[in-house]
Design brief:
Blueprint lengths: L1 H31 L5 H11 L4 H47 L7 H15 L4 H11 L6 H52 L20 H8 L8 H32 L6 H21 L5 H21 L3 H30 L4 H30 L3 H20 L8
Helix pairs in contact: 1-5, 1-6, 2-3, 2-6, 3-4, 3-6, 3-12, 5-6, 6-9, 6-11, 8-9, 8-10, 8-11, 8-12, 8-13, 9-11, 10-11, 10-13, 11-12, 12-13
Length: 413
């Protein structure tokens, strides 16, 4: 009897980590076949249709904004219909959109398709993935499981971007789109069934009588640091802080190659590729450190690293200097995204998590969409990348100061 009692929690733990693996795969396909693949799609449209680079770039912006907006209805639908139904519908619509990528010949068709695809793909994004993980880890610290699942965001880009790019060049977007659609549907529909939570996250028990979880951990998850009356202030502070951090990352990645070319730096693409590689390393380090260091300390450390990287890049006139800046930036790229859901959970509690995280995700999407344009305009006004990157560094410093004002439990995440 004792052996059976011991085996039951072990089996539950394995099942919980299986959910983390499912969320990891979900997010890898979400970004690998979405955000990171947009460049390969745009190149195909410019080469094979009358769609201009400007129109294709506008399509990418529409995709990002639609993805952020799509998170709001997803957050409202999750407690009502459950993750399985939301995911299945989202995956089927996304698969249809991906299959139609090769049929686009006009800009308006591309924008419409990207708007639908971006909205639908929110149904298997970080919002349902993190909700799914939190439900299974409600009786222990969710920081490490969330960090492991969120690593799929980086791995998806590193793994699928070269594959999709090579496939589009070799076989065209029509064939590649059909294959990608088959992969998305064939992989994510089974995962949707496997990842179905036992109950919507809002109905989780809040007392030890209703669950086998410990009272202390349940209090940590269910009792927010911020009262309802102060939610607005804390939420705006959080969104502005991480919006500035993520905006700076996206802008740096988008413009680093051009910066290198303007300054006659040999092979600046090496530095750009190192950002993706070190983002994975940074995410792994974050997974190891999260259980032992308070979330506020880690967030401040990422802010300092990002300010340092942007200053180095702003002043870089050689490949070694650019590489140093890229490596520092990559370490922050691997962690800032996963800190947002952890902060939302800590500040506002599990009952308000899905809706507030969806809104935070939307607002950071605005920063992501605006970042390349912002840097491009400032560069045009100043004639160099020195001022734009210093301004982004100043924004990251402001983000660190804002994080200092947020309340913290004073314990590891």
């Amino acid at each position: 009897m004792q052996g059976e009692t011991t085996r039951a929690p072990a089996a539950q733990q394995r099942g919980a980590w299986g959910i983390v693996g499912a969320a990891f795969i979900m997010l890898a396909l979400n970004t690998g076949f979405g955000f990171y693949a947009l460049g390969a799609f745009s190149r195909s449209y410019v080469d094979n249709t009358d769609i201009t680079l400007t129109a294709a770039s506008a399509g990418a912006t529409i995709f990002l904004l639609s993805n952020g907006l799509g998170g709001l209805p997803v957050a409202r639908l999750l407690p009502r219909y459950g993750i399985r139904r939301v995911m299945v519908v989202s995956v089927l619509i996304s698969g249809a959109c991906i299959a139609l990528l090769g049929s686009v010949s006009h800009a308006w068709q591309l924008w419409l398709l990207y708007a639908v695809y971006g909205t639908a793909s929110a149904g298997y994004s970080m919002i349902p993935a993190s909700t799914m993980v939190l439900e299974r880890f409600k009786d222990r610290s969710p920081a490490r499981p969330l960090a492991v699942a969120a690593a799929g965001l980086s791995v998806g880009g590193a793994l699928f971007t070269p594959i999709v790019t090579a496939a589009v060049l070799a076989n065209g977007l029509q064939v590649t789109g059909f294959v990608m659609a088959a992969v998305v549907i064939g992989v994510l529909i089974p995962i949707a069934g496997f990842a179905q939570p036992r109950r919507p996250i809002e109905t989780l028990p809040s007392s030890p009588q209703d669950s086998s979880t410990s009272t202390a951990v349940l209090q940590d998850l269910h009792e927010p640091l911020v009262s309802v009356e102060r939610t607005r202030w804390a939420f705006i502070t959080l969104c502005v802080a991480f919006g500035l951090l993520i905006m700076s990352q996206v802008a740096a990645i988008a413009h680093m190659l051009i910066l290198g070319q303007e300054r006659d730096i040999v092979n600046p693409a090496v530095a750009v590729s190192l950002i993706a590689a070190t983002s994975v390393v940074g995410r792994v380090l974050g997974i190891l450190v999260l259980p032992h260091v308070p979330l506020k300390i880690l967030s401040l450390a990422m802010s300092v690293l990002q300010v340092s990287s942007l200053i180095v890049i702003a002043t870089a006139h050689s490949l070694p200097a650019l590489i140093v800046g890229a490596v520092l930036m990559g370490l922050t790229v691997g962690n800032n995204q996963v800190f947002v859901p952890l902060w939302v959970l800590d500040l506002f509690g599990i009952e308000r998590y899905a809706h507030l995280f969806a809104r935070a995700n939307l607002y950071t999407s605005f920063g992501i969409a605006a970042a390349p344009l912002y840097v491009g305009v400032v560069h045009q006004l100043t004639g160099d990348y020195f001022v734009p990157f210093l301004l982004m560094g100043a924004g990251s410093a402001v983000a660190g100061l804002l994080i200092l004002t947020l309340p913290s439990r004073g314990r590891p995440a």
